Amino acid sequence: MEFTWLQYLLVGLAALAAGAVNALAGGGTLITFPILTAVGIPAVAANVTNTVALCPGYFGATWAQWKEIKEQRGRAALLLPVSALGGIIGGLLLLNTGERAFRDLVPYLILLASLLLAVGEPLKAWLARRASQRPSSPRSHHFWSAGLVLLAAIYGGYFGAGLSVIVLAVLGLALTDSLTRLNALKQAIAFSVNIAAAIYFLFSGSVVWQVVLLMWVCSLIGGALGGKLAGRIPAPTLRWTVVCIGVAVSVIYFLR
Fold this sequence. Notes:
Helix content: over 70%
InterPro entries: TM_pro_TauE-like, TSUP
Number of domains: 1
Subcellular location: Cell membrane
Pfam family, one: TauE
Number of helices: 13
Distance between the termini: 24 Å
Protein name: Probable membrane transporter protein
Strand content: under 5%
Structural class: mainly alpha
Low-confidence stretches: none
Membrane topology: Multi-pass membrane protein
Largest sheet: none
Shape: globular
């Protein structure tokens, strides 16, 4: 595809903003995906491209919590392969969804992602209360959690926005542990889903590499800027701003 310098600028600014938002509150996909479609990239290709472009961000979040992840080797050995399988299944479903059918689903998916972002903090508060009332125990590791993670991963491979909230909810239902450890495991699972789907997408011919490379650079810069702004911008304010943007974008897609 050919893009003008203005379209490259819009994509770069969106990736920059998404990197900063993800570092502070989450929900960057609600910024980048609409911009990718706005510059003329078909919805399926925009989703595929966005998934590939998110990989560095997921890797950085996983690396930052590697210590807590290593302490959960048993859980990770079970859940990471399952999540990777789910990511591939979701990617397969996406590439076999027609462009028109996926476009029809987009407003619902964006609205769902916005709602998931909105309930993220109440979910964390509930998990923290649950952990304080029920101390962690080796018996809290139920194998049925793998089935729930698989379903969440399929969604993540298909669209991805709001995946972290879904995975954290699944882990909170299946496991009794501290919020810090569950959050770290969530990051590893989300990275596994994203990287598996991204690798699958590499062979699809749908990745728009011109913008992926630009988004990698800009999102990394945005993430660094977001880290420096942490504490200066209230995360709840930013989160609700992104939620409002997501709802507005879904309404625009519905009207179309």
